[in-house]
Amino acid sequence: MTDAPIEPFSGPPTGAPPAEPMFKAPWPAVAIAGVIIACCVLQQILPDGGLGLALFPQQVMAGNPAGLLSSLFLHGGWAHAATNAAFALAFGAPVARLFGMRGRGVAVFFVFYIVCGLLAGLAFVVLHTDGVQPVVGASGAVAGLMGATARLMDPPGQLGSPFTRRSMSMAAAWIIVNLLMSVTGLTPVANGAPIAWEAHLGGFAAGLLLVGPFNRLSCP
To answer: Which of 28, 74, 125, 192 fits as disulfide partner to 57, beta carbons 3.0 to 4.6 Å?
Structure first.
């Protein structure tokens, strides 16, 4: 395959929380970061580098949606995986605390992460129905954690409206960052590959809007 895989990049939007030390982060957030790195290790032993499991929009439109899920566990290189792992840890920590550390809350957290990733991929597919280039990365799911975190900043640690000043500022910053990356191609970890900014914005919107319903599911 001559085209490089698209590498969604999760850069920190304005107002984002600082990276949280791993030893203080809730274990579900640490687990997601660990899975991202572990899957990158496993990817190295696959004959095609895992590209056969990437998201291909054309295949999804043809009735094969498996790539929507499997692509979340693939990355375009170590820098790509490490970046997503770091931001999953930083933005996953407040969301994991919101849902709680008991069994139900932990399960809701993992399902929330996956759902955000699936919707992010679906947003990309809808806008590129005939796309044949592989798309890889957990950035859409990580963007969902960012969107959820945007609602935990005003008031801090409590679930606020998606329309508070901080939520809207973070959403605006995320849109601007992604549009700039798509136009300029200036991305630290993409190695010149195109950026799936549509998935980033779709994931952020999913997290911003769905964290409320999922929070209710986490309550006994």
So the answer is: 125
Burial 90-102 (b: 16+ CB within 10 A, else e): bbbbbbbbbbbee
For the entire predicted model, the pTM comes to 0.88
Q: 165-202, pLDDT tens digit by residue?
A: 999 999 999 999 888 887 776 665 555 567 889 999 99
Specify the CATH number for the domain of residue 58: 1.20.1540.10
Which residues span the domain enclosing 104? 22-218
Q: CB–CB of 14/169 below 8 Å?
A: yes
What is the domain count for the chain? 1
Domain assignment present for residue 6? The answer is: no
Could you report the per-residue pLDDT of 12-24, keeping only the tens digit for each? 444 455 555 555 8
Give φ, ψ of 188 to 5 degrees.
Answer: -65, -30
Residue 129 near residue 149 (C-beta atoms within 8 A): no
- Alpha carbons 17 and 152: distance in angstroms, whole number: 10
Element (H, E) at 112: helix 103-127
